[in-house]
Each structure stands twice: as structure tokens, then as C-alpha cells.
Design goal:
By secondary structure, this protein is an alpha/beta fold. The protein has 13 helices and 8 strands. It has helices at 2-14, 26-39, 70-82, 95-100, 103-107, 111-122, 127-138, 156-167, 180-191, 230-238, 254-261, 294-298, 309-312; strands spanning 53-56, 125-126, 171-179, 198-210, 213-224, 245-248, 268-273, 305-308. The chain starts with a helix and ends in a 10-residue tail after the last helix.
Length: 322
């Protein structure tokens, strides 16, 4: 994947078409038009390099999110690994349903129970231990429908967009409702986005010295939920600049796009609309993940681009011929 990022960067910098996996539609024209005008020193809409901040949601925007968010499947697998030390889980929900492989029943549990399970799977370990567990999972776990590794189910058009923006002097960030430590494990290798440019839901941590070595231990308490209104808060606290470009795919990203596009000067907001049931999935208003209602209703009037995955993208995944 690192090789792919390098190739994409070279292609963007040298070829006439910076977004080859985007069809020649109005969406592509709008994106390129915006980027070119804010990076042209002669343009009245020119934006200095330091202010060219672009933020991207992860689940459903940079990679797929069906049947459920991929990190949730990681949590389920972690619970299974931990089960021998917790015999009480055999009868305690939602753990019991997870251990039976009945994920539908597990997901029907109260939100508090699901949050508790996520905290159990992500805490009481050092940051290094968590990174090792997440990397091992990402290097081996396969999607039940595609047979691809989850980390391979990234969107080729979005990889090109990230590379194009960086070639034009933008600094690209991930701002996700997913766990920041989980995304940081693969973000640089997969997207070319280093760990310090990832903002996500964050657990509290404490510093300890173990065997003479300083370590950080993840605690079972949430410090920031980086979703909905929490996304602008995360941007403010960890980036420190209002973005001029924001991309998402669901109503969980609404406030991030609103915060981005209501600032002064040229702004760009876009939502990826999943409407391709053949090459990926088709879902929006009634979906249990990535629900998109308000964005579809208000986005066009706010000047946001609604990306039509079926018609705007010539290719979905890097390793799959479309």
C-alpha cells in the first residue's frame, strides 16, 4: 500500500488527470475547479499553503463500512480472544451473543452495553500492546462478502483525491468517529496520513513506568467522542485551524461539513453517497450504519457536493477491476 501511495503521488504530480478513477462528471469538475482556484497565486480565491487544511471522515468515506463498522468487528474478535478469562460472558449480554456469532442480537443491545464492550476491548493495555493487536487483526481479518482484507477495502478515487490535495499543498487529516488509536495503526501506510494527523474518538490514558520503561496505559473512560458535534470540537482541539475542505458520507459528518463551509473565504464540502449495489452497497436514509438524511436534504442548498458513487466513480477498490 505504501507503494500505491507513492505511485499515486507521482501520477498526480505529473499527469494531466489527477483523478483518473473519477468519471468525467460535474463532481470531478467541481473538485478540480475548487483546488485549482485556491492554489493559484493569481486567483482572487487563493489560499496560503498553511491554511489549506482538508479533513476526511474514515468509515464510509475512505473505506467501506458494511455490514457494520470494521472496528466493531475488531471489537467482537477481541472479545472472543478475551473470553477464556471471563466465563461470566457466556450468559451476559451482549457478550453472550458475540461469543455465539450472533452479531445482530449483540447490536440490538442498549448503547451503554455496547460502549462498555468497546471499552473492555480497547483498554487496560499499553498503547504498544493495542497497536500490536490491531495490526495483527488488520493483517489477517477478511471481509465476509468480498474475501478481501478489511484494510484493502479503501476507495481508489479517495486515495487519488488525498494525493491530489497533498500535491497541491494541502495538509490532509482524518477526523473520524472511530477510535483514534485503531486508525493510527494503518492510516499512514494506507492513506499517506501520519498518526499525528488523525483525530478520532479517544480514551483517557495514564503514564506508568513498567520494567524501567515509560509507557502509556489506555483507560476504560472516554475523553472525546469524535462524532457529530464532537467533530468540530476535535478539529479545534487537535488541529487548531478551520478546514477549507471537508469530506464525509453520513449525518455523523454534518457538523464537520457545516463548521468547514460556514467559515470565511472559499470552502468545499462533499458527501459520498453510497448508491452502488453492484460494486459496493446502496444505502442512505434507513441504514443502520452511515445513515444519510439531513445531508441529502440540506447539502445541495448549502453548496455541498453529493458524490454519486455509481456514476462518478469509474473504480471502487484498488485491487478490484471494475
Amino acid at each position: 500500500m505504501k507503494y500505491l501511495i507513492a505511485v499515486l503521488f507521482c501520477a498526480v504530480a505529473l499527469c494531466a488527470d489527477p483523478l483518473p478513477s473519477w468519471n468525467k462528471t460535474d463532481s470531478k469538475k467541481q473538485i478540480i475547479g475548487f483546488v485549482e482556484k485556491v492554489t493559484d497565486p493569481k486567483s482572487p480565491d487563493f489560499v496560503p499553503r498553511d491554511e489549506r487544511i482538508a479533513v476526511f471522515d474514515n468509515d464510509g468515506t475512505l473505506w467501506s463500512e458494511r455490514p457494520v463498522y470494521f472496528q466493531l468487528i475488531f471489537i467482537f474478535d477481541q472479545i472472543k480472544k478475551m473470553a477464556p478469562d471471563h466465563p461470566e460472558w457466556q450468559t451476559q449480554e451482549p457478550y453472550a451473543s458475540v461469543l455465539k456469532g450472533d452479531y445482530k442480537s449483540a447490536l440490538s443491545a442498549k448503547e451503554e452495553a455496547l460502549v462498555e464492550m468497546a471499552l473492555v476491548a480497547h483498554s487496560n493495555m499499553t498503547g504498544a500492546e493495542f497497536k500490536q493487536a490491531a495490526r495483527a487483526w488488520l493483517d489477517s481479518a477478511e471481509h465476509p462478502k468480498t474475501g478481501m482484507l478489511y484494510k484493502e477495502m479503501v476507495f481508489q478515487p479517495m486515495l487519488e483525491l488525498l494525493a491530489y490535495l497533498r500535491a497541491k499543498g494541502f495538509k490532509t487529516f482524518i477526523v473520524s468517529g472511530g477510535g483514534v488509536d485503531f486508525i493510527r495503526v494503518f492510516a499512514e501506510e494506507t492513506y499517506g496520513i501520519p498518526p499525528e494527523q488523525v483525530v478520532g474518538t479517544t480514551l483517557k490514558a495514564k503514564y506508568e513506568v513498567r520494567d524501567g520503561k515509560g509507557v502509556l496505559v489506555k483507560e476504560p473512560e472516554i475523553a472525546l467522542i469524535d462524532d457529530k458535534a464532537g467533530k468540530p470540537v476535535g478539529i479545534y482541539q487537535f488541529i487548531g485551524r478551520r478546514p477549507i475542505f471537508a469530506a464525509g458520507n453520513s449525518d455523523g459528518d454534518f457538523e464537520m461539513l457545516e463548521y468547514t463551509t460556514t467559515g470565511e473565504g472559499p470552502r468545499f464540502g462533499m458527501l459520498v453517497h453510497h448508491n452502488d449495489s453492484q460494486r459496493e452497497w446502496a444505502y442512505d436514509r434507513e441504514s443502520h450504519v452511515g445513515q444519510l438524511n439531513r445531508g441529502l436534504d440540506e447539502g445541495p442548498d448549502r453548496g455541498w457536493l453529493i458524490v454519486d458513487m455509481k456514476n462518478d466513480w469509474a473504480k471502487i477498490y484498488p485491487s478490484v477491476a471494475d
